[in-house]
Amino acid sequence: MFIILEKAVLGMAFLRLLSGSIEIFAAILMLRFNSVEKALMINSSLALVGPIILILTTTIGLVGIVGDISVMKIVWILLGVAFILIGVKS
Predict the structure, then answer these.
(1) The model scores a pTM over 0.70
(2) What is the DSSP annotation of 55-68?
(3) Which InterPro entries does this chain map to (predicted)?
(4) Does the first or last residue of the chain, that is N or C, have fewer Cβ atoms within 10 Å of its Cβ?
(5) 14-54, pLDDT tens digit by residue?
(6) Which domain holds residue 55?
(7) Exposed/middle/buried for residue 2 (C-beta within 10 Å: 0-12, 13-18, 19+)
C-alpha cells in the first residue's frame, strides 16, 4: 500500500525540514565559534530565514487550496500572515 502525498503538502514539509536543518546548523556554528558576538550575528541572520520560510510555506499551501476556498478567505489568510510579519518586525 502506497501513501500518496499531495504536492503542496510535500513542498511545505520540505521547506519546514530545510528551515529546521538551517536552525540546527546555526546552533552548531554557534557552539563551534564559542563567541557571543558571532552567535548574535548567526542568530540575526536566522531572522531572515523564518519569515521567508513562513511566506513560502503559506504560499504553497494557498496555491494548493486556491480552488477549494473563497477569495475572501485567502485575503484573510494573507492579511494574517502580514500581521504576523509586522508583529515580529516591530
Answers:
(1) yes
(2) HHHHHHHHHHHTTT
(3) Uncharacterised_YqhV (IPR020390)
(4) N
(5) 999 999 999 999 999 999 999 999 999 999 999 888 889 99
(6) 7-89
(7) exposed
Place of cell 554557534: 30
Cell of 14: 520540505
In the chain, what are the helix, strand and coil shares in percent, each to the nearest 5?
Answer: 85, 0, 15
Burial 58-80 (b: 16+ CB within 10 A, else e): bbbebebeeeeeeeeeeeeeeee
**Residue 1, in any domain of the structure:** no
CB within 8 Å of 6: residues ≥ 6 apart: 64
The CA-based diameter of the chain, rounded to the nearest angstrom, is: 52
